[in-house]
Amino acid sequence: MKKYLPRLKNSKLFQGIGEDELASMLDCLSAVTRNYYKGESVFSRGERIDSVALLLEGCIHIQKEDYWGNLSILSEISEGELFGEVYACLGSDELLNNAVAVKPSKVLFLDVKRILTMCPSACRFHGRLIRNLLTALAQKNKMLTQKLEHMSRRTTREKLLSYLSEQSQRAGSPVFDIPFNRQQLADFLSVDRSAMSAELCRMRDEGILSFDRNHFILN
Amino acid sequence: MKKYLPRLKNSKLFQGIGEDELASMLDCLSAVTRNYYKGESVFSRGERIDSVALLLEGCIHIQKEDYWGNLSILSEISEGELFGEVYACLGSDELLNNAVAVKPSKVLFLDVKRILTMCPSACRFHGRLIRNLLTALAQKNKMLTQKLEHMSRRTTREKLLSYLSEQSQRAGSPVFDIPFNRQQLADFLSVDRSAMSAELCRMRDEGILSFDRNHFILN
DNA sequence: ACCTTTCTGTTGTATTTGCAACTGTTTTGT
DNA sequence: ACAAAACAGTTGCAAATACAACAGAAAGGT
Fold first, then answer.
1. Which residues are B60's β-sheet partners?
2. Residues A12/A81, Cβ–Cβ less than 8 Å
3. Which of A77-91, A139-153, A179-193, B111-125 is the least confident region?
4. Which of A23, B160, B209, B213 is most buried by its number of CB atoms within 10 A?
5. What is the pLDDT of residues A167-214, one digit of tens each?
6. For position A218, what pLDDT does the model report?
7. What gap in Å lies between CA A83 and CA A77, rounded to an integer?
8. d(CA B219, CA B209)
């Protein structure tokens, strides 16, 4: 666990909290870690949870499969990010999505009740922790709003441009990598993979963008 | 303001806080109210805000218009609900959507810094307030996830069924009213109004549902 | 009561999409 | 180094959608 203290210190949840404080906090929050194989579920639809999860290593997809096996990817969780915090905060609500490791992953779990319940002594930074959680929720909220913006476009081309523009803006450069392969991107944007692939090539031929695998350049 | 105390007491933000406490809190949070005409903007895209808004009376749509004037409705805010809390919590981020009164409305504004910053004396319930804000954010987060579920459906019919099922479940009955007219529902689901109208009638003819204006019955 | 505006449903057409099947390339595991 | 699996791109076709233009019904204002 010690190994991850520097990374934890820079996570959104523990931002502004010293490394020494952090170690004692982890006890206080009854922190446990667990490893997951590629393809293994961290959380499953219908479950109720009382811990927030912090991804120490690996990559998690928040996703769902419908009746006919069609996969829909809600979001990608990368190292240092939180997930499950919504349902941990809501307590009694059932999860609507699965959280699946797409790489071998290591996850830290923190009891949300202990985050929300003030411990009178020890944790000087408890208030900070709660505000960090609040900010993390607000940021995820904004991210979902942006995703809705992509999804509300009518055509595959518009969805792609909306998504790629955001990625470019986030990278602060017209050159950037995306965290999805074609099938995953299609599942993320809820479009047909082959039609999307064709659309990407059409845009490339029109000079709107260029790409190689996950690497994109917007013109 | 006194007039709204009972309603405030039952809002998500002030849940669990006594009416007497509430009155003193409102001072502490530098609460102000303002009235809006139908069609007037409460918040506008690109703005930065530092107050959360609580709708005392009326109805607000969180929406956006694109380049070509196509309207997209992100969500509907009804009486007692919060809005703007995401951007108030994020502080430096610009709003991505407009908040527009679709009826004459009365809005209460509360300085978010005062919510987040512990006041040492007076407000015994301050911790409760912060946890309420956290819960409100988590609930909105879940709502956005559900909307993404509707939007990720491929066909207009599936989007409608996904949305109507949720509304039915929320109402706890196969008989329910929706808060949108046809054009608004189309703008909410990002589909063509006339095609959606046709689809609704087809579903009615197939016996899947019946409706009259905003009133729906699922079979 | 009347006129105007808003709302809902209908139809036809061009465009776009999803789907399925297939090819060639890259990556992975042994 | 090789075989198998995963990945990306291509094409044809049936189905669904957006768009536009229109008609009737309901609601609102004077």
1. B77, B101
2. yes
3. B111-125
4. B160
5. 999 999 999 999 999 999 999 999 999 999 999 999 999 999 999 999
6. 96
7. 7
8. 5
Q: Where are the beta strands (DSSP E) in A7-104?
A: 32-36, 41-43, 51-57, 60-65, 71-77, 82-83, 98-101
* CA A157 to C1' C12, whole Å: 26
- A78 and A54 Cβ atoms separated by less than 8 Å: no
- Looking at A47-140, which runs of residues are DSSP E strands? 51-57, 60-65, 71-77, 82-83, 98-101, 105-111
> How long is the CA A198 to C1' D8 vector, in angstroms?
10
> Which among A85, A141, A149 has the least Cβ separation from residue B140?
A141
B14-42 per-position pLDDT tens digit = 999 888 888 888 888 889 999 999 999 99
Amino acid at A138: A
Decide if A152 contacts B72 (C-beta within 8 A): yes
Answer yes or no: is pLDDT of A118 > 70: no
Q: Which of B116, B138, B148 sits opposite A74 (nearest CB)?
A: B148
Q: Flag if B138 and A97 touch (Cβ within 8 Å).
A: no
Separation between Cα atoms, residue A165 and residue A177, nearest integer Å: 12
Report the nucleotide nearest the CA of residue A68, measured to C1'.
C19
pLDDT of residue A170: 96
- pTM comes to 0.95
**3-state SS assignment for residue A161:** helix
* pLDDT above 80 (res B1): no
CB A38 within 8 A of CB A101: yes
Helix B156-171 and helix B193-205: axis angle, to 10°?
A: 70
Question: How would you label B127-137 residue by residue, b for 16+ Cβ within 10 Å and e otherwise?
Answer: eebbbbbbbbb
What are B63's two structure tokens? 């929406």
Q: How many CB atoms lie within 10 A of CB A187?
A: 22
pLDDT for the residue numbered A2: 74
Distances (CA, A) of B50 to A47, A84, A140, B54, B88: 36, 27, 18, 13, 5
Check whether residue B190 has its CB closer than 7 Å to nucleic acid strand C: no
Is B160 in contact with B198 (CB distance < 8 Å)?
Answer: no
- CA distance linking residue A20 with residue B139, whole number of Å: 34
